[in-house]
């Protein structure tokens, strides 16, 4: 059996890569992908803890996280498309005003 | 045996994530992220969560990544980062803070209890999809209903945001 701490370690590494993606990249779509990576890292830690405690509740929470992430991606990408339509760019540096 | 499988999958997951971060083309980023999601799905299988394995593959690898690829190709926004960064000190600062976050999270993650993971018959049985479904429709019924509502709002929101010929 693989110890739970190994999974937590992997989760921490993936989460950090996600944070770096949000901070370093300026393509809004890649920033979005990095957010998804962070959500996945958190899910992995939750599932690892679920096995440690032999509880199914954490897996239910992961199920909810995945559902909300799907809704978030749909709305976020719709926002991106509508920003792209008015500004003709997906660079987050260019999108610095609230006015459409 | 399980440890070898874990290590190989972990290497694949980290490689996919780093390659997503470094790829210049957004389509390549999306495909590397798909690799990472697949590796995490295998992790769920190793952690005795077969239902989440299926959900991860269908919802994340199937639906969400297809949506990403579709939007990247629809917008033609594969490469937008040709101009230099507007804030010059942002990248080194981000690397520094990311490293600090990694150190802190690893220390906290490894500093917890170090009991050996449970083994045997109980582990193989605690999380079959049946018990997950029973929990979802009894104790977590209200959150489950709210999730459905959130999905409905997302659908309505996407339709409203992408209406043509009408300013919101």
From TrEMBL, chain A:
Enzyme class at the top of the EC tree: translocase
Cellular compartment(s): Cell membrane; Membrane
Tree of life domain: Bacteria
Keywords associated with the record: Cell membrane, Membrane, NAD, Quinone, Translocase, Transmembrane, Transmembrane helix, Transport, Ubiquinone
Quaternary structure (record): NDH-1 is composed of 14 different subunits. Subunits NuoA, H, J, K, L, M, N constitute the membrane sector of the complex.
Name of the protein: NADH-quinone oxidoreductase subunit K
Summary of the function given for this chain in its UniProt record: NDH-1 shuttles electrons from NADH, via FMN and iron-sulfur (Fe-S) centers, to quinones in the respiratory chain. The immediate electron acceptor for the enzyme in this species is believed to be ubiquinone. Couples the redox reaction to proton translocation (for every two electrons transferred, four hydrogen ions are translocated across the cytoplasmic membrane), and thus conserves the redox energy in a proton gradient.
Sequence intervals crossing the membrane: 6-24, 29-49, 61-84
EC id: 7.1.1.-
């Amino acid at each position: 059996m693989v110890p739970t701490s190994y999974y937590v370690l992997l989760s921490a590494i993936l989460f950090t890569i996600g944070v770096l993606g949000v901070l370093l990249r300026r393509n809004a779509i890649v920033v979005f992908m990095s957010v998804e990576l962070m959500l996945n890292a958190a899910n992995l830690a939750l599932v690892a803890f679920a096995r440690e405690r032999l509880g199914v509740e954490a897996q239910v929470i992961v199920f909810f996280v995945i559902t909300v992430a799907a809704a978030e991606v749909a709305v976020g990408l719709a926002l991106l498309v509508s920003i792209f339509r008015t500004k003709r760019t997906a660079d987050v540096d260019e999108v610095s005003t609230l006015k459409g | 045996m399980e440890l070898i499988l874990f290590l190989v999958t972990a290497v694949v997951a980290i490689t996919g994530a780093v390659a997503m971060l470094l790829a210049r083309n957004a389509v390549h980023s999306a495909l590397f992220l798909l690799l990472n999601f697949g590796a995490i799905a295998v992790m769920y299988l190793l952690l005795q969560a077969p239902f989440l394995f299926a959900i991860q593959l269908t919802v994340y690898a199937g639906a969400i990544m297809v949506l990403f690829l579709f939007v990247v190709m629809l917008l033609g926004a594969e490469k937008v980062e040709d101009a230099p960064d507007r804030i010059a000190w942002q990248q080194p600062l981000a690397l520094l803070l990311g490293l600090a976050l990694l150190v802190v999270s690893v220390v906290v993650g490894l500093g917890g209890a170090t009991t050996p993971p449970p083994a045997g018959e109980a582990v193989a049985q605690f999380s079959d999809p049946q018990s997950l479904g029973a929990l979802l429709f009894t104790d977590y019924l209200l959150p489950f209903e709210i999730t459905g509502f959130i999905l409905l709002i997302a659908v309505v929101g996407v339709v409203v945001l992408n209406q043509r010929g009408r300013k919101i």
